[in-house]
Amino acid sequence: MDLTIEGNAYLNGTFEKRCIGIEQGKISAIKKILKGDEHLNFGRKLILPAGIDIHVHFRDPGFVYKEDFSTGSQAAAFGGITCVFDMPNTKPQTTTVQTISEKIRTAKKKSFVDFGAYVAIDDENIKYINGMSKHCSGFKIFLGSTTDSLQLSEQKLKEAIYAVNQANKITLIHAENEQCLREHKEVEHNLKDHIRCRPSECEEKSIKDVLDACRDVSSKIHICHLSSCEGFELLRKKPKSVSVGVTPHHLFFDVGSINSKQTLYKVNPPIRSNLDRETLWYGVKNGFIDVLESDHAPHTLEEKEVDFDNAPSGLPGVETMYPLFLAEVKKNHLSFARLISLLCERPAELMNIPKGKIEVGRDADFIVIDYKETTTVKSENLHSKCGWTPFEGMSTIFPGDVFLRGERIIEEHQLTSSSGLGNNVASGVQ
Ligand code: NCD
Ligand code: ZN
Ligand code: ZN
After folding, report:
1. 396 phi/psi in degrees, rounded to 5
2. Quick check: helix, strand or coil at residue 85?
3. What's the distance, CA 195 to chain centroid?
4. DSSP-based three-state secondary structure for 324
């Protein structure tokens, strides 16, 4: 056995003092006593599965002044995320075999964590879905316009979903109805205006369209960043093939709780009312929400600190997501079981990857935490190139150590690997 690590491990819903054996990057044994060539004893510290973030924008290529695959994936690693899935609204957009292959080549060189990438479907490339599916982890559809996004017209939604179903991949959807957004468009001065321009009814209408279009398909459909009560009501009775994600910012903030720096919190879909926020928490706690996804969407402060109407939408979050929710568990706002399901188990299931659980045969991806060590978020301690965070001052539990396929990539809060170790996790991809 190459390595054994010992500690209080999260196994089948409880913590047990165990040794985990690792061979060739995989978990090979879990026993009370084990000794490998190298043995690391973490004592009373907790060993949890590392997190998986199915929704990040690492801006590479095209907007690498905001982030690139190296800085984005380092931020992920420090935050206990060992696998990320990158969105296609880069420059060029990821809409062809060539652009997805190029992005994967870049990520292989730069990424500190494992990764996958999505292809965006628009009205042009819809006929090539089958060919492109051999190169990506899944597809992204933007039904409403958002930062640097392409769009698929509403009439083509069913055709696209059917084609992805044939290719047996997952489809992730930004669900805001474009027609509805257009009808509400006006000049925006603050977050309340942003909500008026992108009301819940636009999300509701779009989710309805998706549920209608996917009635007869078996492939997975994922609704990204749910933000409203209305959307939640529709998804309560969703079919098995449909999953839904919520972001940290929609759970931690509501429009009434943000007083300063309004443009920093400008994001699509908008941060809404306290009632929306509480409904999302209800869904998270009671198993109606499948995953937490950061929607890590960095922009520079320079870009954000302009008048509200011209500020881009999006905020960073990949590094702080797992630590923020660990602190919520400590405050008894959430159980470990729900957290691990939302950040590890369900994302692994959705993306069909052998991660997300401490179980023999799976990748040896772990985080080690000192449950007593609570710290507060400070932007200067974070690693995204954008250099700021909307979560400043909030309480967190950061992992001291992070393992990616048995490699200790973070050791006592320090990065140990000097270059990218990340693999493409897309199954069946050349
Ligand atoms: C995202 C971005 O900046 O890429 N912006 C956002 O407000 N969430 C795009 C998106 O996910 O809609
Ligand atoms: Zn989106
Ligand atoms: Zn996004």
Report:
1. -145, 160
2. strand
3. 23
4. helix
Triad 255, 292, 90: Cα angle to 5°: 85
Residues of the chain with CATH 3.20.20.140: 50-351
Which homologous superfamily does the CATH classification assign to the domain defined by 50-351? Metal-dependent hydrolases (3.20.20.140)
- Whether 143 lines ligand 1, by a CB cut-off of 6 Å, is no
Structure tokens at 158: 């069913």
Question: Is the pTM value of this prediction over 0.85?
Answer: yes
Residues measured by CB to lie within 5 Å of ligand 2, the ion: 174
CA 306/CA 294 separation, integer angstroms? 24
Atom of ligand 1 nearest to the CA of 57: 4
Q: What are phi and psi of 168, to 5 degrees?
A: 55, 50
Q: What is the percent of the chain where pLDDT is above 90?
A: 96
Compute the distance between CA of residue 38 and CA of residue 68 in angstroms, rounded to an integer: 34
Q: Looking at this protein, which amino acid is placed at residue 207? A: I
Residue closest to 83 by CA, chosen among 377, 371, 291: 291
Which of 89, 266, 293 most suits a substitution to test ligand 1, by most atoms within 8 Å of the C-beta? 89
* Residue intervals in the chain for CATH 2.30.40.10: 3-48+360-415
Sheet containing 14-23, strands listed edge to edge, beginning at the edge strand earlier in sequence? 26-31, 14-23, 3-11, 38-49, 366-369, 401-404, 407-411, 414-415
**CATH number of this structure's domain 3-48+360-415:** 2.30.40.10
Task: Work out which ligand 1 atom sits closest to the CA atom of 298.
Answer: 3
Per residue in 291-348, pLDDT (tens digit) is 999 999 999 999 999 999 999 999 999 999 999 999 999 999 999 999 999 999 999 9
